[in-house]
Design a protein that fits this description.
By secondary structure, the chain is of the alpha+beta class. It has ten helices and 13 strands. Strands 9-8-7-10-11 form a five-stranded mixed β-sheet. It has a three-stranded antiparallel β-sheet with strand order 1-5-6. A hairpin with a 5-residue loop joins strand 7 and strand 8. Helix 1 packs antiparallel against helix 3 and helix 5 packs across helix 8.
Length: about 400
């Protein structure tokens, strides 16, 4: 019995897959590389479980999973551009499919050993099927970024507040009409679910309602991602060093309902806050900034989050009463009285902490926020404190 439950190595599992392809007809129709890719993913899930990073992998229903087809090798894809906007690619067992050409690819005379397509993946999203190419490209070492430094505070009312006094804001991801349509679709979904008998198969009408809801939500997600990409690109090109809080977003968005013995308080309010944080995708903003700064020779510095919103950026006095409201900060220290937008004050504290932790040989640290870069979609706060307020002493 012990030998049957032993932890199988990846080599033994690959041998079993090869034998299964000989014994099972439908499995032999699947490309060998795709089967090996699925096997590696499954094996990695078990390794994560054995090493305590995750639980045991469980069965995932088709309609609850992201549908995708992986093509691990790019040599047989036969990518070819047929017009300015369209190209074709060969997918094993599927055939030649057409895709929208949105970015230059190293194919044909532009491909070599260092620059080539190494694989692809077909993914089904709410708006249809998409093809994602894996590309190996030779990248030159970026020159050091000589731009100034800045601290950034992530929020909800003000998505991004900068220590130079400017903000980066966006409109709602859905218009008023789209929001109303989503609300009606959600109500329609609940009516259709209530009319279904327990254990009854999901009707085609309910599936269609699910697809319509997914389409509206996917549109909002695309708009959010588009805004994040454009905003982080401008920030990465402008600033050489950016400081951000090292937040544990998983703990921040944890439910407040508590347990049966110790029920939580303000559960509905906390649930609404969690949804707002998830919509802003704070973690994705930092991830985009990190790799874009690296590509441009810049640096992202993560600083501890405690007390950044309660500490005065001028005198350093810290107390919960300093933040009078969501957007109002007034220092309660005798003789100070510093007042400004609460998010801007937090961004200045983040910027000061990032300046202390960043290596001093970085050019951006030596020219920290010498002037503001409001940009096209920024607004500056009013007040008598310049961009360097709070960075001289703390």
């Amino acid at each position: 019995m012990a030998s049957e439950n032993r932890r199988v190595s990846l080599k033994d599992a690959d041998t079993a897959i090869r034998q299964a392809r000989k014994d099972i007809g439908w499995l032999s129709d699947l490309p060998a590389q795709a089967a090996q890719a699925v096997l590696k993913t499954y094996f990695r899930a078990w390794v994560n479980c054995w090493e305590g990073r995750a639980g045991e992998p469980t069965f995932k229903a088709r309609f609850r999973s992201r549908m995708g087809i992986d093509v691990p090798q790019g040599r047989d894809l036969g990518i070819r551009r047929i017009s300015r906007r369209w190209g074709v690619v060969k997918v094993p067992k599927v055939g030649v499919i057409r895709f929208r050409w949105t970015k230059d690819l190293p194919v044909g005379k532009y491909a070599d050993v260092q620059n080539r397509v190494t694989g692809a993946r077909l993914v089904k999203e709410a708006g249809g099927w998409h093809v994602v190419f894996r590309v190996r490209t030779e990248v030159k070492e970026p020159a050091p970024h000589v731009g100034p430094g800045v601290g950034i505070d992530r929020g909800i009312a003000k998505p991004l507040a900068l220590s130079d006094g400017s903000f980066r804001e966006h409109d709602p991801w859905l218009s008023r009409g789209e929001t109303e349509r989503l609300r009606r679709l959600e109500k329609k979904k609940e009516r259709q679910r209530r009319s279904r008998e327990p254990g009854e198969t999901t009707s085609h009408r309910l599936k269609r309602t699910y697809d319509q809801i997914a389409g509206v939500r996917a549109r909002a997600k695309r708009r959010a991602l588009d805004w994040q990409h454009k905003t982080t690109t401008v920030l990465a090109e402008t600033f050489g060093v950016i400081g951000a809080e090292n937040l544990n977003i998983t703990n921040l968005t944890r439910s407040a309902k508590g347990t049966v013995d110790g029920p939580g308080t303000n559960v509905r309010q906390k649930a609404g806050l969690n949804r707002s944080i998830s919509k802003e995708a704070w973690g994705r903003t930092v991830a985009l900034l990190e790799y874009k700064l690296f590509d441009r020779g810049g640096h992202l510095v993560k600083v501890p989050a405690p007390d950044t919103s309660r500490r005065c950026s001028v005198c350093g006095f810290t107390t919960p009463g300093n933040r009078e409201s969501q957007d109002r900060f007034v220092c309660k220290a005798p003789g100070c009285g510093h007042a400004e937008n609460a998010d801007t004050n937090a961004a200045r504290n983040i910027g000061h902490a990032a300046k202390q932790e960043a290596p001093q040989d970085i050019a951006g640290v030596r020219t920290w926020s010498l002037r503001g870069y409001p940009g096209d979609e920024a607004s500056t706060t009013s007040g008598g404190h310049g961009p360097l307020a709070g960075f001289s002493r703390l």
